[in-house]
Amino acid sequence: MADNKKYYYLKLKDSFFDSEEVKMIEAQENGYVYSNLYLKMVLLSLKDNGRLVFKGRIPYDEKMLSTITGIPLDSVRCGLKILKDFGLIEVLESGVMYMSDVQLLIGHGSSESERKAIYRKKIGIEKRLTGHCPGQVPPELELELELEKEIDIKKKKTKSFIKPTIEQIKQYCTERNNGIDAEEFYYSYEAKGWMIGKTKMKSWTASIITWEKSNEKRNKSEEIDCTDNTIYAK
To answer: Across the chain, what does the average pLDDT equal?
Structure first.
């Protein structure tokens, strides 16, 4: 029988316990209890991408965390204050806690910077939705919808450049009847890594049009320079 259950896992770098934050936590009195609390909170948040809510609805409080983690209530209270001071958790006005660095501890296909940017966006959206009115779209659903829009917009903006073939350049130049040597254009930018100055080329067709303009200016300049001003004797 197929196992359709989702499994969540935590990926720790071998330098995790050497990080400044963890060392500062464990330097406190009962510090190893607080680092243990931190790891247990991260694990609890994995199912909701860093958001600490019970069954996706009820924000965890100190008593709930003490019950779930098996750590005494007083230690949980002190630990939460330390984690907040060190920027490892963020508590919203609604009472929802976010594990600030959880996106660096879970596996995804995108880069760490992209995951963290999307995660910070999610926190910002939830902050704006805290005071929603009854009858409107539930904040969880609206949150997901807004995030999907943001991700779609980002993907469109960061559409990767695909370099053309010589045949594509020839065809485009033929259509425009611009007289540009397709091979010269191709190998010129191939040698530059398809860069324009220090910027990656975004549109090779736009670059061809730029070449056309440059050729037109150069041809006009040559026409002026080559004017025959010789005076012939009769």
So the answer is: 75
